[in-house]
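// run 5 | inverse folding | seed 20
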């Protein structure tokens, strides 16, 4: 078994440790005076500074927009992004304060433009009891036992598919390959879709269009990325709903396939969610499971050649695991193999520390909050 194979698995399995905040939405009462708000500017009407903020940049930096604004206003400044007023924070102390007061002073909240694409029942925008229930459903499906018996094998199979497709001395995009790997893995895990099938590739095309709109200016006009994303969202949901209808029919007829032991089937059997809720849940899990993992894998590949010592230690760790498996006459990865990848876990953690895997997370102030003299003001 190749070193790259084992490294790919570890990277994709450890991403959920990520926690990073850059932005939270604030609202301010129109009748209140503006007292001690952070410096900054609101930009153009409606769009604000969204276009400049979304300008592409390297994932190893925070981008030109953030650099310029931090240099001019400091690490905490006000702006208008995605059509709504916002306070942007690149301050570690404030970000920690927000996390420590999650559910007390702040809650998860995305701008209406992003929420309109993700769906009102998406786990990324839900708060309170409904978010807890949706999260519990997902975690119950992805139990420790299932990780060991199902997901590990799926990760290994999809990794081998990617590695075996590479031609000798060929050139490829690490990020494109990482996205292919994570999308196919999530599609199989969620809806039992096989990689390379016509319907899987069609879904992938729609998903790419959808993703471009999520991180675009919120202009619902013909020809814009946002409008195309809304259209792709509708197509994706129709595809998922057709799969649901087919699965329900099979369950009623007693013709369920063991190969369809996936999240969609589990939710249909073990939850009381409505059709709309299931559709948004599946879409949000596809979104959350794909994006961060693929970027982190690509960043690890980018960072490793810059540290030959880490590269060699990583190679030694995986070579030792491969030798032990060969001596034992084993072929497939086991949970014990994964637990032995201690240095690999260090590589994953360092990748997340160095790389900008997530551009921003949104939080809404539930009440007026003061932090070191700065007012985070609520308005409605």
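// decoded
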């Amino acid at each position: 078994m190749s070193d790259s194979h084992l490294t790919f698995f570890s990277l994709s399995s450890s991403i959920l440790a990520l926690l990073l905040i850059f932005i939270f939405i604030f609202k301010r009462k129109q009748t209140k005076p503006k007292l001690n708000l952070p410096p900054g500017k609101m930009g153009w009407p409606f769009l604000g500074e969204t276009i400049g903020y979304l300008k592409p940049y390297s994932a190893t930096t925070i981008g030109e927009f953030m650099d310029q604004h931090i240099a001019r206003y400091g690490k905490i400044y006000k702006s208008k992004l995605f059509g709504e007023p916002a306070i942007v924070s690149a301050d570690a102390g404030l970000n920690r304060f927000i996390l420590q007061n999650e559910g007390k002073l702040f809650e998860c909240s995305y701008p209406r433009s992003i929420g309109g694409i993700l769906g009102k029942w998406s786990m990324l925008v839900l708060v309170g009891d409904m978010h807890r229930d949706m999260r519990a459903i997902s975690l119950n499906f992805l139990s420790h036992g299932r990780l060991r018996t199902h997901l590990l094998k799926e990760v290994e199979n999809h990794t081998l598919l990617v590695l075996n497709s590479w031609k000798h001395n060929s050139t490829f995009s690490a990020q494109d390959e990482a996205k292919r790997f994570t999308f196919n893995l999530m599609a199989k895990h969620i809806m039992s879709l096989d990689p390379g099938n016509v319907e899987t590739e069609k879904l992938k095309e729609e998903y790419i269009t959808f993703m471009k709109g999520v991180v675009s200016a919120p202009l619902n006009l013909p020809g814009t990325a946002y409008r195309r994303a809304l259209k792709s969202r509708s197509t994706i949901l129709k595809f998922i709903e057709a799969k649901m209808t087919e699965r329900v029919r099979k369950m009623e007829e007693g013709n369920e396939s063991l190969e369809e032991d996936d999240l969609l089937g589990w939710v249909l059997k073990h939850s009381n969610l409505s059709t709309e809720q299931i559709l948004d849940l599946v879409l949000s899990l596809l979104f959350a499971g794909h994006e961060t993992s693929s970027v982190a894998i690509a960043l690890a590949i980018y960072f490793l050649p810059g540290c030959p010592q880490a590269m060699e230690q990583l190679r030694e760790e995986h070579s030792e695991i491969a030798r032990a498996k060969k001596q034992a006459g084993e072929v497939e990865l086991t949970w014990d193999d994964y637990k032995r990848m201690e240095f690999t876990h260090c590589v994953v953690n360092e990748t997340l520390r160095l790389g900008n895997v997530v551009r921003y997370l949104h939080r809404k102030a539930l009440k007026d909050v003061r932090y070191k003299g700065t007012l985070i003001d609520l308005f409605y």
